[in-house]
Design a protein that fits this description.
It is built from 10 helices and 6 strands; from the N terminus they run H-E-E-H-H-H-H-H-H-E-E-H-E-H-E-H. It has 270 residues and is mainly α.
């Protein structure tokens, strides 16, 4: 998650970097316990230790907590709801054609193709190594197929990233109380819905943060951080989120059984 809304060009760089290097296949590393390690919580049945929180001048402590606790939970949730959240080839092609009209996106797409070719070479080497499990081989082949498709279609990587983000956030919006949305670098977030979703995941035992200070820090993105005018419940902005122009008309329809939003009564308009 990003809490600074910057220029569009920065947004594109964030999107490509997120897809290539922080995809659902990249997980927080789990380690064997050392004698001096301190447990700070659990995620998806695995223990998380304090020394897994990376440090450095450019490393945000809260982002580290998201990486260690929220990301594995999100990956598991997306796998369980793959049928609803997986973009169709029709959606990807439509979005890619739309984004291809933007010269800045096309330029970044050309640069990204070089990285994709390097990744494909790495995957080919990995597939030729011994001792891969069946699941590891399948995972690598799945990545290989997606990367090859990205080479063949201009702006496919960017389109796929935007659709993955949009479908997940839209799903949360309709299933976890709707509420306010937040404009971010990597796209619009269903702000209140995500907060409710994480609390629900925690109640379900999918993750726990034992250190009270770290627990508070994890949630202060929703409880204390000031997001200014980027946080809104204005109907026209919500419609922009739910029905973007780069999504086919058939995909913009509201899910069956979802009533009109009544949450506006609980929030003051920006």
């Amino acid at each position: 998650m990003y809490n600074v809304f910057s220029s569009r060009n920065s947004t594109l760089i964030v999107c490509f970097a997120s897809l290539l290097f922080f995809s659902p296949h990249v997980r927080a590393a789990q380690r064997l316990k050392k004698p001096d390690q301190e447990k700070i919580g659990t995620v998806m049945g695995q223990t998380v230790y304090r020394d897994q929180i990376r440090t450095g001048k450019k490393i945000n402590r809260r982002d580290e907590l998201f990486r260690l606790f929220a990301q594995p939970v999100k990956e598991n949730y997306i796998r369980d709801h793959r049928k609803e959240l997986e973009p169709s080839e029709k959606e990807i092609a439509f979005a890619a054609a739309y984004f291809s009209k933007d010269e800045k996106i096309r330029q970044l797409d050309r640069q990204e193709k070089t990285m994709i070719r390097q990744q494909l070479l790495t995957i080919e080497k990995q597939l030729n190594t011994k001792h891969l499990t069946t699941s590891e081989t399948q995972e690598l082949k799945s990545q290989q197929t997606e990367l090859q498709a990205s080479l063949a279609m201009p702006c496919r990587t960017f389109a796929r990233f935007m659709l993955d983000h949009w479908k997940f956030q839209r799903h949360l919006y309709f299933n976890y109380g709707r509420g306010r949305i937040l404009f971010q670098q990597a796209g619009i977030e269903a702000f209140d819905a995500m907060y409710q979703w994480l609390q629900d995941r925690e109640k379900q035992g999918e993750f726990s943060i034992d250190d009270p200070k770290l627990h508070t820090l994890f949630y202060n993105y929703w409880t204390t951080q000031k997001h200014g005018n980027f946080l809104t419940i204005k109907p026209e902005r919500i419609q922009e989120f739910l029905k973007p122009k780069w999504v086919p008309e058939s995909s913009r329809k509201e899910p069956p059984g979802k009533k009109e939003d009544s949450s506006a009564d609980f929030y003051s308009a920006d």
